[in-house]
Amino acid sequence: MFLTKEEERMLNGEHGEAAQKAMEILVALGKIYGAEKMIPVSSVQVAGVSYKTMGDAGLEFIEEFACMGAKVKVPTFINPAGMDKMRWKEMGVPEEFAQKQIRLMNAYESMGITPTYTCAPYHIGIRPKLGEHVAWSESNAVSFANSVLGARTNREGGPSALAAAITGRTPEYGLHLDENRIANVLVKVKTDVSTRFMYGALGALVGKMVKGKIPAFEGLENANDITMKYLGAAMAASGSVALYYIKDATPEWKLKEDYETIEVDNKMIKETIENMNTTEDTEIITIGCPHASLEEIEEVANLIKEGGMKKVWVFTARKIYEKALEKGYVKTIENKGGKVFADTCMVVAPLYEMGIRRTGVNSGKAAKYLPSFNKQKIKYDNIKKLLSE
Ligand code: F3S
User: Mean per-residue pLDDT for 294-310?
Assistant: First the structure.
């Protein structure tokens, strides 16, 4: 694998122990995937932040890096943690969990990582341009960057993203190469899919059908940042899809000559929705997977305003939380028994340990992960229905 003089210096330890270890990780990865060289990345999004998913071994690994004096070289953002840094007591997060979570957050922040704690950096203005190379980790963020923005990223693991942040490089393979960004499945959507809820269900279904391939959709209406976020997140969760195209919506559309075709009809989507539902009654409604935009929080505030008390938790980025606070949406929601939390989400927070068992969601990704990560029974429905019952 070709390395520049500077990359060689990093590998030889001339830039310190942390950069050396980081370069070792990247070179090993590059060799596995047959990369010919490293490429610079303009930003990094690091996952592996919740103590729930990292555990003591992960905490030790990150603290070790921080102790070596690791510092990020390019703008680096971070995924949700296991709790709201300011309001974890209100969430009911156990004390021991919180203490370890704070250590993990502090270790990351000591490296110069911007404490965004969000899986939707694109909602807070972090939007790499068409063709820009980045190294992002969280699967919905990766899907959004590749598909909706046309940036280039593989789905990085926690260590490889951190290594990219410390060196400013990533090995050139996978979705960084144009030849690997060509769709091989044409998905003809033969029914009306225009709401977020339907986009999420479609994503859950198509992800399962195409498993890791690159789908290109025809027949979708109302494709925008929010609907595509729900589609991409669900497809990434059910089928590890990191890139997709939508005719006349995504900035790129590339289809192989010998593509396969699948059709999706209303019956298939209905069945998918039925299978996602495992309970009729819920203890809590959780919104914000991926993290809610300001418009989505406004919608919750408007929907909740007229009805009775509702235990709804909305998860978002701190920057958006602050805007929602300013606009009065947080107050409206919290006056009706809801909460708006930042820095975390329903999947990476320890919901089960907090005594919660049955959750209502409008997200295909949350419906997929909550049963396994947090032992939840799920009611999957659209936001209006969830909030009106
Ligand atoms: Fe984000 Fe948590 Fe969903 S990290 S995509 S809100 S599982």
Answer: 92
pLDDT of residue 205: 98
CB 243 within 8 A of CB 272: no
Q: Say yes or no: CB of residue 373 within 6 Å of ligand 1.
A: no
Indicate which CATH number applies to the domain containing 173. 3.30.499.10
pTM score of the predicted model: 0.97
Domain final residue, candidates 178, 198, 222: 178
Same domain, 96 and 137: yes
Q: For the chain, how are helix, strand and coil distributed in percent, rounded to 5?
A: 45, 20, 35
- SS3 call for 325: helix
Q: Which numbered atom of ligand 1 lies nearest the CA of 139? A: 5
Mean pLDDT of 310-322: 97
Domain span holding position 329: 277-388
Other CB atoms within 10 A of residue 265 CB: 11
Q: How many Å apart are CA 283 and CA 311, to the nearest integer?
A: 7
Q: Could you tell me where the DSSP H helices lie in the chain?
A: 5-11, 17-32, 51-67, 88-91, 95-110, 139-143, 158-167, 196-210, 225-239, 266-276, 294-306, 318-327, 329-335, 364-374, 383-388
CA–CA gap between residue 336 and residue 345 (Å, rounded): 20
- What is the spatial distance between Cα 136 and Cα 157, in angstroms, rounded to a whole number? 9
Nearest CA to ligand 1 atom 5: 290
Ligand 1 pocket test, candidate residues 348, 368, 370, 372, most atoms within 8 A of CB? 348
SS3 360: strand
